[in-house]
């Protein structure tokens, strides 16, 4: 293939074209979307009314009068005038026919413990009782915020749906995050109630989770927000599993409180379609996290439609998304999408490799899972630890998803041939916390699959790749640029909570040419990812264009990592960089420069690791901490993260003539690469995409 010469604002990329895999005929025969005519129905000629098809999958209290309101761009409003309740759509409406069907199947990590099947009728009862508690005991009203810091237990979807029932905005913080990180998000959202759990099982241990609640309340208080009540679900109702004491007057065991609300019923509050449903915080390039505000009607319609057509969820399926509800994937494709469609959704408490790498396949066999959904990180880990385990079990998937980061073609092929046994379709989905649901993917019964490429834009999504000057990068050019979405869609977040100016600046200002325009065509959405577009119309995602490190599908802001490192008294400067990691995709390495007169030591390295774990969570634990004499810097004093990222990955550091201290580069290279070689961290040849990622890292201010 001939490639054009890239301009200075473009990146040239080269990769091997992969083969196509056709969807099995057995899958096509039962698929929700098997006729290519659906693509025309969602074409730009029918926008925005095409999304009526998604909205009509829901039950509305009042039908909408305006499908898309563009009066205040880019603060789009969908299905204006419509009213509905998200909890009613996920629970109540299924009772007439499916009240005795399992809504949720919860698998505890200890295999000795009983799997719990929760029917739609039981879910209805639990949600009503907790909704009554939130309303009457906590005094919460429509529009109030509640923060959850919950692990993968049924109490999490129960809590989410209870909030949705009474119009309270929920904000779940990933259970693996520290108490301090939770406190930051409590303060930002102005939550007065924290819902947590005393303990949960993780990798064979019963982890004390209640301790993080005390840290969170203290951290929020320092930021000016007082938490009035901490509601503590107990992993084992009736007995506490945490040594951390309860605080009188503030902390309450939920199972004790619920006795007063037994069998109470709460009418679902009819909410405007544009009313906020939840906040989902995501890391950014500054220390303050971004609270992505998602709507009720647009969001629920979008995840229901994409779950039906791209996940191919039928009510009779047993569907397992092996993600965490603490991330947007879990909100959209464990809770709201699947339950809206009335299917059975599986929740697993623990680590997929505990007690061994056969665990996911045992669960799939025992429960008769038909649809499986996970991230490349988990796939890589399962391939490494148990490459032949899937053959030992008699499960049969019809459909598999990969989500969270690009998947390497070789890993994709193992997923297809070994996990899917050559019988399941794969959708390789691309989207983000801000987007609500999928943005690019093959439509499984219509498009052939292509390892390493997510596919075209999904129904009703019109992506484009721009260079830095807003020139369109054409399909098949072999050149990468910034992937953008030219149009609004119902799942797009409404704003950044409390930061509307930042919302416009980060996502729309770069390519908007007329701030006064009311035409949606003038407001392309900047996703923040680099991508290329093949001649076949399939997108290949290359990674973030900003300084966010994607570790095992978890997006970690470098500023948060560096801010945590600098809390160590001896540290003057810190720089976080990504390093290619076989299992996690990317891992974090931290470079440290010490204050004058301080001698480097193992103790300081350990303090940095401890600070990061305490303030962000174990997921952010750096692979290595390097104490260096100085950082490579520009003349303006900016640390050149691109240079040290290249050193960490044994790559060419490129042009360093603009550095104020170019001599430091060789010193750092000799120190780091020698130590890595001695530890057995041997260099490997990086792919073109990985090299481009390193080259782009740290370039965005």
Task: Spell out the key features of this protein.
single chain; disordered N terminus; 29% helix; seven-stranded mixed beta sheet; 701 residues; 21 helices
Describe the overall structure:
This protein starts with 10 loop residues before the first strand and ends in a 5-residue tail after the last helix. The chain is globular, with a radius of gyration of 25 Å. It has 701 residues and is an alpha/beta fold. The protein has 21 helices and 31 strands.
Question: Any chance you could write out the topology, listing elements then pairs?
Answer:
Blueprint: E1 11-12, H1 25-30, H2 37-41, H3 52-55, E2 66-69, E3 77-80, E4 83-84, H4 86-90, H5 95-98, E5 102-107, E6 116-119, H6 120-137, E7 145-149, H7 155-166, E8 169-172, H8 179-189, E9 193-197, E10 199-202, E11 205-208, H9 210-222, E12 229-233, E13 251-253, H10 254-257, E14 271-272, E15 276-282, E16 290-295, H11 297-309, E17 318-321, H12 328-340, E18 344-348, H13 359-367, E19 371-374, H14 376-385, E20 399-402, H15 409-419, E21 425-428, E22 463-466, E23 479-485, E24 495-496, H16 500-507, E25 525-533, E26 539-544, E27 548-551, E28 554-557, H17 558-566, E29 571-581, E30 585-594, H18 602-615, E31 624-628, H19 641-648, H20 663-678, H21 688-696
Parallel strand pairs: 5-18, 7-8, 7-9, 8-15, 9-12, 12-13, 17-18, 17-19, 19-20, 20-21, 30-31
Antiparallel strand pairs: 1-23, 2-3, 4-14, 5-6, 10-11, 15-16, 16-24, 22-23, 23-25, 25-26, 27-28, 29-30
């Amino acid at each position: 293939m001939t490639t054009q010469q890239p301009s200075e604002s473009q990146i040239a990329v080269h990769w091997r074209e992969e083969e196509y895999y056709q969807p099995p005929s057995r899958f096509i025969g039962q698929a929700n979307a098997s006729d290519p005519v659906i693509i025309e129905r969602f074409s730009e000629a029918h926008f925005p009314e095409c999304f009526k098809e998604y909205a009509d999958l829901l039950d509305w209290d009042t039908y909408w009068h305006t499908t898309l309101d563009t009066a205040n761009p880019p603060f789009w409003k969908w299905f204006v005038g419509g009213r509905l309740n998200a909890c009613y759509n996920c629970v109540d409406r299924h009772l007439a026919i499916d009240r005795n069907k399992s809504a949720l199947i919860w698998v505890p990590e200890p295999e000795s413990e009983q799997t719990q099947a929760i029917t739609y009728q039981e879910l209805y009862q639990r949600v009503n009782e907790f909704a009554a508690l939130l309303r009457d005991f906590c005094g919460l009203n429509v529009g109030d915020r509640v923060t959850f810091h919950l692990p993968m237990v049924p109490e999490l979807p129960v809590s989410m749906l209870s909030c949705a029932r009474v119009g309270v905005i929920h904000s779940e913080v990933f259970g693996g995050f520290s108490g301090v990180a939770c406190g930051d998000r409590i303060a930002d959202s102005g939550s007065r109630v924290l819902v947590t759990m005393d303990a949960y099982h993780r990798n064979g241990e019963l982890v004390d989770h209640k301790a993080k609640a005390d840290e969170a309340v203290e951290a929020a208080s320092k930021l000016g927000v007082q938490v009035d009540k901490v509601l503590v679900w107990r992993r084992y109702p009736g007995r506490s599993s945490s040594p951390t004491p309860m605080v009188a007057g503030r902390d309450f065991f939920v199972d004790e409180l619920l006795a007063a609300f037994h069998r109470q019923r709460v009418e679902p509050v009819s909410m405007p379609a544009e009313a906020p449903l939840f906040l989902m915080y995501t890391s950014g390039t500054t220390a303050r996290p971004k609270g992505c505000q998602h709507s009720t009607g647009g969001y629920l319609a979008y995840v229901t439609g994409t779950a039906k057509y791209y996940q191919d969820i039928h009510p009779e399926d047993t569907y397992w998304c092996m993600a965490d509800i603490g991330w947007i994937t879990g909100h959209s494709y464990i809770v709201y999408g699947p339950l809206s469609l009335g299917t059975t959704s599986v929740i697993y408490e623990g680590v997929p490799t505990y007690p061994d790498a056969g665990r996911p396949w045992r669960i799939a066999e025992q429960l008769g899972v038909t649809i499986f959904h996970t991230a490349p990180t988990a796939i890589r880990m399962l391939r490494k630890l148990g490459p032949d385990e899937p053959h030992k079990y008699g499960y049969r998937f019809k459909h598999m998803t990969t989500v969270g980061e690009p998947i390497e073609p070789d890993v994709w092929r193992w997923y297809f041939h070994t996990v899917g046994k050559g019988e399941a379709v794969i959708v390789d989905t691309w989207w983000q916390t801000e987007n609500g649901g999928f943005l690019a993917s093959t439509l499984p019964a219509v498009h052939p699959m292509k390892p390493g490429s997510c596919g075209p834009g999904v129904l009703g999504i019109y992506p484009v790749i721009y260079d830095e000057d807003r020139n369109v990068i054409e399909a098949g050019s072999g050149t990468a640029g910034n992937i953008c979405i030219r149009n609004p869609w119902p799942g797009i977040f409404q704003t950044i909570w409390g930061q509307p100016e930042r919302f416009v600046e980060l996502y729309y200002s770069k390519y908007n040419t007329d701030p006064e325009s009311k035409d949606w065509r003038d407001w392309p959405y900047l996703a923040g990812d680099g991508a290329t577009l093949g001649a076949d119309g399939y997108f290949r995602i290359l990674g973030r264009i900003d300084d966010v490190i994607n570790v095992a599908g978890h997006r970690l802001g470098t500023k948060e990592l560096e801010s945590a490192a600098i809390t160590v008294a001896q540290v003057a400067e810190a720089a976080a960089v990504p390093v290619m990691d076989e299992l996690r995709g990317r891992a974090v390495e931290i470079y440290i420069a010490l204050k004058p007169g301080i001698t480097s030591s193992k103790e300081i390295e350990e303090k940095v690791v401890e600070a990061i774990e305490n303030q962000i969570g174990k997921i952010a634990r750096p692979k290595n901490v390097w104490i260096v004499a100085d950082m490579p810097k520009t003349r303006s004093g900016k640390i050149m993260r691109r240079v040290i990222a290249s050193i960490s990955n044994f790559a060419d550091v490129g042009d360093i003539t603009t550095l104020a201290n170019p001599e430091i580069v060789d010193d750092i290279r000799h120190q780091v690469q020698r130590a890595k070689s001695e530890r057995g961290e041997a260099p490997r040849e990086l792919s073109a995409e990985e090299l481009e990622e390193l080259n782009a890292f740290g370039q965005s201010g």
